[in-house]
Amino acid sequence: MKTKDNLQSAFAGESQANRKYLAFADKAAKEGFNKVSRLFKVVAEAETIHAHKHLQIMGGVKSTLENLNSAVEGENYEYTEMYPQFIAEAEQEGNNAARASFHLANEAEKAHGALFKKAHQAIEGNQDLDTESFHLCPVCGYVAENHAPDKCPICGAPGSNFKEY
Ligand SMILES: [Fe+2]
Ligand SMILES: [Fe+2]
């Protein structure tokens, strides 16, 4: 069936367009083009609407317990297979910027995977997480529970720069 693959492709494409337009919006704002920046932001949001619709139609959003399973699997795949291979290939090709970017993401995915596992255990026991707050490293994507560390254990960024959720 073509449509199943097409939904997957459309979801991937719209998801990428969302993140790309947000990066373009930041750049436009830095260059002083605030209206163009807002245009990139509003269209980015529209691409998210499309992406979510495609994902729902292909059955990609289930119960939170199942979604956490999917999230654990996704993070696990990234740090056990995808990034280790990408890191090795970037090393072979001498692309240090890509190697460093893959490395930071790989380490952060381990932390994400652990948090999703913890959430999965909580939901299995019919409880929400008892975490008070989450704290995001704006450099590498590491996520800490309850309070920001003095500095990021992955990239060394100061905890004062972490963003609270
Ligand atoms: Fe992740
Ligand atoms: Fe970090």
How would you sum up this structure, described in words?
Helix 1 runs antiparallel to helix 2 (about 35-55). The mean pLDDT is about 95. This protein folds into 3 domains: about 1-55, Up-down Bundle (Ferritin); about 65-125, Ferritin, core subunit, four-helix bundle (Ferritin, Up-down Bundle), CATH 1.20.1260.10; about 130-165, Rubrerythrin, domain 2. The chain has helices at about 1-30, 35-55, 65-90, 95-125, and strands at about 135, 145, 165. Strand 1 and strand 2 form a beta hairpin. Helices cover about 65% and strands about 5% of the residues. The protein binds fe (ii) ion (2 copies). The site of one fe (ii) ion has 3 residues, from helix 4. The site of one fe (ii) ion (FE2) has 3 residues, from helix 4.
The small-molecule ligands in this entry are: fe (ii) ion
**CATH topology descriptor of the largest domain:** Ferritin
End-to-end Cα distance: 41 Å
Question: What is the N-to-C succession of helices and strands?
Answer: HHHHEEE
Radius of gyration from CA coordinates: 18 Å
What's the overall geometry? globular
The CATH homologous superfamily of the largest domain is named: Ferritin, core subunit, four-helix bundle
